[in-house]
Amino acid sequence: VTVCRTGYTGERGYELVVPWTDAGRLWDALLSAGQPHGILPCGLGSRDTLRTEMGYPLHGQDLSLDITPVQAGAAWAVGWDKPAFWGREPLLAERATGPSRRLRGIRSLGRGIPRPGMRVSADGQPAGTVTSGTFSPTLRTGIGLALLPPELALGAVVLVDVRGRPEEFEVVKPPFVQPSTRE
Predict the structure, then answer these.
(1) Using CA atoms, how far apart are residues 95 and 35, in angstroms rounded to an integer?
(2) Could you identify which of 40, 62, 97, 103 might form a hypothetical disulfide with 131, taking C-beta atoms 3.0 to 4.6 angstroms apart as the criterion?
């Protein structure tokens, strides 16, 4: 077993990496040992909600071949000093000129819950797309990450097309929830 503290959800916890052949036995042992302490299993939905509350990008949704680390706010994870890597020149150019879009947090001002792929508009014009969205049980409101124009300031109000209804959201800087405020 390899024990990690990568903290992908923002929680104080551990990830256990085992060969798949041992995963079932370890799972059963953990649930059995944790039963007196009220341990309960949870799935990817929980992980996704927690990482969205922290504003962590999910590879394939918020960070992909079409969404660069510069756009996703993950430029800190790029080895800029390396003399060569795939995509280095375009990333250097984007970093120098600034990205054409930025991954920003959005928080519902009403009852809307954003979902990936929903369209975002500002001042009556198309402005971007939701990449991740969920209902935050901690905040009891809809939150999400969206690719938006960099000139769209924090505090701006945008509209998200939630199943044909325009819902107001405020552009915010993640994390939505500070790790110490979770119950």
Answers:
(1) 50
(2) 62
Contact 168, 120 (CB under 8 A): no
Global model pTM greater than 0.90? no
Q: Give the residue carrying structure tokens 């996703």.
A: 72
Q: Which uninterrupted H or E stretch holds 46?
A: helix 44-54
Alpha helices, DSSP H only, in 82-179? 88-97
Residue pLDDT, tens place only, 56-113 = 999 999 999 999 999 999 999 999 999 999 999 999 999 999 999 999 999 999 999 9
d(CA 107, CA 47): 19
Contacts for 32 with CB less than 8 Å, ≥ 6 apart: none
